[in-house]
Amino acid sequence: MRNIDLSPLYRSFIGFDHLASMIDAASRNEKQASYPPYNIELLGEDKYRITMAIAGFSRDEVEIEVQENTLKVTGKKPSKEDGERKFLHKGISERNFERSFQLGDHVKVLAADMEHGLLHIDMERVIPEAKKPRKIEIGSKLLENGAE
């Protein structure tokens, strides 16, 4: 991925410095390994689902954490001694992982479920009433507290 020069934005936009940090975080996430594979689905107008293929992991070995606008999914396998199992072919990766996703404003994680080696994380964008567009009738007067 190419580096993006954001200096023109800084000259003409004030208060958008968080945009630069979001772009930087997204470029760092692109560089991380492709394990585990995942899908991002649009289930409805404001409903989303991330599905991750985490075969071999149990519920106790996976942790999901949301902090500010970052969703972090971590999988940790307990260490096992190498002599415990002998493989003729090992195609199922059981390595530890950490994958981060940047969430948009007002996106809330609703639920997580795991079945058949797939982790499903459901999310929804919930826009507060104060942020939704509202119509202003011509000739109406707003009171000091914002009520009509």
TrEMBL record:
Keywords of this entry: Stress response
**What CDD domains does the record tag this protein with?**
ACD_IbpA-B_like (cd06470)
Record-linked PROSITE patterns: SHSP
Does this UniProt record's set of keywords contain DNA damage?
no
Read off the InterPro entries from this record. A-crystallin/Hsp20_dom, ACD_IbpA/B, HSP20-like_chaperone
Domain SHSP residue range list:
29-141
Q: Which family does it belong to?
A: Belongs to the small heat shock protein (HSP20) family.
State the PANTHER family in the record.
Answer: PTHR47062, SMALL HEAT SHOCK PROTEIN IBPA
Q: What is this protein called?
A: Hsp20 family protein
What is the scientific name of the source organism?
Answer: Fluctibacter corallii
The major lineage groups are: Bacteria, Pseudomonadati, Pseudomonadota, Gammaproteobacteria, Alteromonadales
